[in-house]
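Changelog-adjacent note: as of this version, every example in the card shows the full chain rather than a window. The one below runs 508 residues end to end.
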Amino acid sequence: MRNTIYLFTALLLMLNQTPALGQIQDAKEAYEFGHAAMQSKDWRDAIEAFETAGKDRQLRAAANYWQAYAHYQVKQRAQARRLLERLIERYPNSEWVDDAQVLLFEHGDGSEPATHQAALDEELKLFTLQQIMFNNPEKALPKVYDLLENSDSERVKHNAIQLLGLSESEAVAEYLFKFIDQEKNVDLQHQAIQMLSLRSNANSRKKLQQLYQKSDNRDIKAAIIQGFVHDDNTDELEAMLQQETDPELSIYMIRMLGMQGNAAVLKDRYQQAQGDERRAILEAMALAGDASYLYDIIDHESDQEIRNQAIHSLIMVDDDKLGDYLTRLYKKATDESEKDVIASVFVATDVAPEVIVKLMQQESDTERKKQLLQTLMVMDQKGALQQIYEQETDQEIKTSIIRLLGVMDASDVLMEMYKNDPSLAEEAIFYEAFGMSSQALDEDFLMARFKAGNEQVKQGVLNAFMMQGNAAPLVKLLKQESNHEVKKQIIQMISMIDPDLLLDAIED
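Full-length structure tokens:
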């Protein structure tokens, strides 16, 4: 029943060129990414994208609907139902309410809406027209026009535009151009533009350029830019970029040229660019995969902010020489902010952990050492952290390593370190690291250490059980402990975790 073709279809033709979800903050981009994700059945990415899109008030109703739809695809009925019910309650006048009611009914989560049968009829009619379009499009086209112009369902209209996009008829193209000019729904305008941009017809592409020039609507212009992205021919984008005076649209085109791999145009533009545009070109160069040009900029740029931006752009670069280059750059860096940026790039790239370990061993600044340790944590390098711990003499650094291993759920590594160095058992942080872990604690070991330990050790053990929300061993310690102040502390901890268990303990 559901064959909706989404706004971002064209971008799916670009292999490995869709921006990463984590990089998308703009609500409209997130909305488009969500449609692309649904088209490729990446339902969880779609859910996340529509959640971001829903932060925009104008997109909220539509984003809630599609987020709910994606939730249903991964069997998360409760989440879907809550979203749809909220949509219906908060936006009763929205054009998405009818669709929300239909979706609830289809999944057995709502009573049959009055519009359900009509929606079914329209969907069936679309399916029929789709079959006719392949054999006799001239007969089907008037009916498709009628649905597009008169249907109350946005889903149906999206489907109708998709059907029209199947036609290579110049008459259909003219109809879609008129539709774009007259339509007020931005999503529908965008899809019509996408369908036209997919046509190989040179006349359609020329008219899209003309539409771009005469339009004063930024959303329309952005959709046209997107429409040209899937094509290997970048002439249209280059021409529009030369004439564009809107900084936001210029930056958008720069990003698209980067996705297309057009490094030559970007290099020329960089020399005259300033501010945000220059920063956008650096990111686009990375998207284009031109690592050597970025290296050259970094090596010769005196502006620290630009250097840092160029270094950060290397996150998106796939280059065998990147690890060696970053290592050399880090060693000779004198600016602290530059070192921070390089460390962040280490985390996001496939730099060998041995490189980080070596830099860590060569680093003299304690805070910088800690940052490199965090890099190894993000890279999930438990063994490397253990290796550094065994070689390190600075107690502050050793303490940081223990804490990081706790965050990493590395209880097994901590126990191995304890066996090699029993003095660890004298440090409270050792026990607190166990508390940070989601793994089950070795209660017998901790209870024994509590009994034999000093005040610092006892505090560490108590904190470990508290952090894990484990009240049962605390009750045992309460019964064994003789120190009045420690007993009070244990009682306080148990009351926060499980008051009922504390009452039982008092009765005992």
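Structural remarks: The mean pLDDT is 81.
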